[in-house]
Automatic annotation (TrEMBL):
Pfam families: NMT1_3 (PF16868). This is TAXI family TRAP transporter solute-binding subunit. It comes from the Bacteria. InterPro entries: TRAP_TAXI. Keywords: Signal.
Amino acid sequence: MKPIHPTLHRLLLTGTALLACTGQAVTFLNVATGSPTGTYSAMFKNIGQVCAQSAYLKERGSTGSLENIDLLLGNEVSLAFVQSDVLKAKQQIDQDPRVENIRALLPLHSEEVHLFARPVVVKKNMLGKVTRSGVGTFADLKGKRVAAWGGSLITAKVLSAKLKVPYSIVSVKDRDAAFNALNTNQADAVLAVVGQPASWVKTLAGVSLVPVPYTPALNGIYTQAKLLYANLGASSVPTVAVQSVLATRDFKTPDKKKMLLAYQKCALGKLVNLQEDEGMHPKWQEVTFKAWPWPQYK
């Protein structure tokens, strides 16, 4: 017989004890993460390795930040990993009053904007005229099509407006659909917001990383960053990054509040373990859990 996982064993023991003592079923909270191979999912699992309180949290996969914030606002999950620009867009652009009830349980890492395109091709005809095709700079996106999904759709819109480079945004279901659109000439580039290093980016071939410039217009939303991916020949590609956060709502129910604060306290106290234990996601090394410009859950 296959041995039971330690976390599940601890959960079953604790849950059984609680049920025996109180006569009430154990409460589980759903957490919206993202792709199973994404940074959000990895970091959620990492916290679960060091905090027993994670045993009461159930991961719910999603397409990313945009779906996550909708799930949180729609009361389908109790916690959600989201990009800060998606939260700000909900507040400032959509003017959704429900966002005022959102709280930051754990301010997390920065997520880099990854802009992919086919390599630039330069041709010279018989008359000596040189033609250039493809996307080599952000400005080259003018009038072109950019595929994005999840929270990256919001980032694509914000960057287009702030950097004054008009392009069409092709909304797709997921990463595979985005690169399919690029490979079938239905899109000229793919924009993805993901914490570096992303495991799936390390498997890519036949595309280039396009620099994303930082200008004063992005101040307060994005910060400067660099992309480093040897498989794409990227020793240091300039880009911008946006902070992520594990968000919740301002719950007042005593049991739920106690559970969330215990989870928060454990994560705060185990930051060194998250940063130094082997196998933890590299992004933990830049996490400080310091407050950011959004109300903290207390």
